[in-house]
Design a protein that fits this description.
Blueprint: E1 7-11, H1 18-32, E2 38-42, H2 44-51, E3 58-62, H3 73-79, H4 84-94, E4 98-103, H5 107-118, E5 128-129, E6 132-134, E7 141-145, H6 155-171, E8 179-182, H7 193-207, E9 213-217, E10 229-231, H8 234-260, H9 263-284, E11 289-293, E12 298-302, H10 308-321, H11 326-341
Parallel strand pairs: 1-2, 1-4, 2-3, 4-12, 7-10, 8-9, 8-10
Antiparallel strand pairs: 5-11, 6-7, 11-12
Helix pairs in contact: 1-10, 3-5, 4-5, 6-7, 6-11, 8-9
Length: 345
């Protein structure tokens, strides 16, 4: 990590667990990563005594105003200009030394704030949520987008999601990311008209050498490690995301019940305990933090129920994207697509 890495702005009031989780997670992240510098937006009287040990690595923007989960996003962004979310986004927008913003606040408010304060990359119709998901292959994962920001999408928007994810993966060092469309079957004739149109457009980009499109992928296949990017509209992407999270919770709760059911199972758990905790941390918590691809600067959304451990993880994730220069990479990639697809784009 470069010593001149840009600062990360942390919304300390957003989310279900508020200041204790945000400050606790930030403290661990600062101790683990000497290069990390934060702009913490929240109640200075609570934050300052806990971060004084880090000197000028931490800057505090004082506010006690938060945007609640149930507030109307657009109204809240426009009226609560002194909220931690709006003030944090303003720091990201106006300062060259700030490269990413992290929040556990309302998804709608974070996305709306990103639209209004940061702005979209030229050529991008809609930003997309793109969590990283685990696979059965050790060290391999896939990106899912959109995962809930855009419920209804056009074929062009699906293609843009694919192109943005491809640019992201390449920025992370992957030469030829395997991009697939989420569908009910692998045949190109399957799916609704939007998906079939997007499929044809992605084939055209593949043949032009712009993107490595591998076709359709079914939901039960995405965790096998055969693709690196899964493209869907926000409705079906979110269904896949939440179904997988729900199934993971079901499996772990079932395991706990089995372990409690007998003495021999408890003995086995003694040997498996650490392995299971490691598996959960490395596999099941992958979806905690995700970037909104398509904005001019990096806006990272955490789960609303993020605890201190997940805040630390989200800040570590932000450190990996803060200096990738994604804005220019995506803008250049989208421009190529517009030129090739012409009127369709």
């Amino acid at each position: 990590m470069m010593l001149n890495m840009k600062k990360i702005v942390l919304d300390c009031l957003g989310g279900d667990n508020g200041l204790p989780a945000m400050v606790g997670g930030a403290l661990v992240a600062l101790k683990q990563n000497p290069e990390l510098q934060l702009v913490m937006v929240g109640d200075a009287s609570v934050i300052k005594p806990q971060v004084e040990q880090f000197g000028d690595r931490v800057e505090i923007i004082d506010t006690k105003v938060n945007i609640a989960m149930d507030e109307h996003p657009t109204t809240a962004i426009r009226t609560k200009t002194d909220s931690s979310l709006v003030l944090g986004l303003e720091q990201l927008k106006t300062r060259d030394d700030c490269g990413a913003f992290v929040s556990a606040g309302s998804t709608g408010a974070v996305l709306t704030g990103g639209f209004m304060k940061i702005g979209r990359i030229p050529g991008v119709s809609r930003p997309a949520l793109c969590p990283v998901m685990p696979t059965l292959i050790e060290g391999q994962e896939f990106m899912l987008l959109d995962a809930g920001a855009n419920m209804d999408c056009t074929a062009v928007q699906l293609v843009q999601f694919a192109v943005m994810a491809d640019a992201y993966k390449k920025a992370m060092g992957m030469e030829q990311p395997r991009v697939a469309l989420l569908n009910v079957g692998t045949e190109e004739t399957k799916g609704n008209e939007v998906v079939k149109t997007a499929h044809a457009m992605l084939i055209k980009l593949h043949n032009a050498g712009i993107i490595n499109f591998v076709g359709n992928v079914e939901p039960d296949q995405v965790f096998k490690g055969s693709v690196d990017v899964v493209v869907a509209d926000g409705f079906w992407g979110n269904v896949l995301l939440k179904t997988s999270e729900g199934m993971a919770k079901f499996v772990f709760k079932s395991l706990k019940s089995i372990i409690k059911s007998s003495f021999s199972a408890k003995i086995g758990a003694l040997f498996l305990g650490r392995k299971l905790k490691k598996f959960k941390a490395e596999k099941m918590d992958k979806t905690n933090a995700t970037i909104f691809l398509g904005l001019k600067k990096s806006v990272v959304k955490m789960h609303g129920n993020a605890d201190a451990r997940k805040v630390t993880s989200a800040l570590q994730y932000a450190m990996t994207v803060v200096d990738l220069d994604l804005h220019q990479r995506i803008e250049q990639a989208i421009a190529k697509v517009e030129t090739l697809l012409g009127e369709n784009a």
